[in-house]
UniProtKB/TrEMBL annotation:
Protein name (Swiss-Prot/TrEMBL): Isoaspartyl peptidase
Keyword terms: Autocatalytic cleavage, Hydrolase, Protease
Sites where the protein binds substrate: R204, I205, G206, D207, T227, G228, H229, G230
A GO biological process held by the record: proteolysis
Any Pfam family the entry gives: Asparaginase_2
Site label Cleavage, positions: G175, T176
A GO MF term: hydrolase activity, acting on carbon-nitrogen (but not peptide) bonds, in linear amides
Length: 313
């Protein structure tokens, strides 16, 4: 099989074995495995990297387990506001949405914006109008209702506290989902999607839809999808910084990722991780938190699925 690969994440943070029941652990792994396997099948059939990352992220958006799409967390108003982005490493074209509501699969809207408009990022009502005009699927509020997410929000909705995904006291989990892929033609792509922070106000937007912060792809270097405390990832321009270290300093993918995630971010308190892929097939999945939902599959290798820090390939 040609040099193809895909990697994805479903969020990072304080994820310890004691925090998940055996049933929850099994459910998360099954969802990650399905997404990585189906994304890989696209590549194995000769499909392109964009199609692979879009499909993988769509599957994760359709799962209530992750803070994206169907599993998006509640805002201060009891609504759901979602951000997403997709980028093509071959052309450097990108599409992104911020603060959209009732869009069933924000990542598909990003692809449509990239391919059918002269813009990169659309937000709010404008993005929703674009989705309507281009036949994207909408979903009622009831589709996004999740009892667990609702209980999270209920604990803090009468306060000024916001929470990162399903935070419980000091337990922090950043529920962004994302994928990166390399196709048989040597092209790479990245896609990321999130529901943001529980109880967020003022139409807060994180790093996910910002090209170079939470999402980036360039055939000359790498494709990156981030998950973590978005404010830090924006300040550090994490995704582009990984690419820059490879382009201007000649670092390998792993070296660049380690420098940004485990040194630069850590220095000023940024928690989270990323998945990245290079045109030579190298894959990196670094994180500086207790865990990260992650999976990868390259060539004819078996899929690797992991959650906790001590799980290695």
């Amino acid at each position: 099989m040609k040099n193809i690969a895909i990697a994805l994440h479903g969020g990072a943070g304080t994820i310890e074995k004691k925090s998940l029941s055996p049933e929850q652990d099994k459910a998360f792994r099954a969802a990650l495995k399905q997404a990585v396997e189906e994304g890989h099948q696209v590549l194995a059939r000769g499909g392109n990297a964009l199609d692979a990352v879009e499909l993988a992220v769509t599957l994760l958006e359709d799962s209530p387990l992750f803070n994206a799409g169907k599993g998006a967390v509640f805002t201060k108003e009891g609504k759901h506001e979602m951000d997403a982005a997709i980028m093509c490493g071959r052309t450097l074209e990108a599409g992104a949405v911020a603060g959209v509501r009732n869009i069933k699969n924000p990542i598909q809207l990003c692809r449509s914006i990239m391919e059918h408009s002269d813009h990169v990022m659309l937000s709010g009502y404008g993005a929703e109008e674009f989705a309507l005009n281009h036949g994207l699927d909408f979903a009622p509020e009831s589709y996004f209702f999740n009892k667990f997410r609702y209980e999270q929000w209920s604990e803090v909705r009468d306060t000024n506290i916001y929470q990162l995904d399903h935070t419980v006291h000091t337990d922090e989990k950043f529920g962004t989902v994302g994928a990166v892929a390399l196709d048989a033609a040597g092209n790479i792509a990245a896609a990321t999607s999130t529901g943001g922070m529980t109880n967020k106000r003022y139409n807060r937007i994180g790093d996910t839809p910002i090209i170079g912060a939470g999402t980036y792809a360039n055939n000359a270097t790498c494709a990156v999808s981030c998950t973590g405390h978005g404010e830090y990832f924006m300040r550090a321009v994490v995704a582009y910084d990984v690419s820059c270290l490879m382009e201007y300093k000649g670092l390998s993918l792993q070296e660049a990722c380690e420098a940004v995630v485990n040194r630069k971010l850590v220095k000023f308190g940024g928690e989270g991780g990323l998945v990245a892929i290079a045109p030579n097939g190298d894959v990196a999945m670094p994180f500086n938190s207790e865990g990260m939902y992650r999976a990868k599959k390259a060539g004819e290798q078996q899929a690797f699925v992991a959650i906790y820090k001590d799980e290695q390939v």
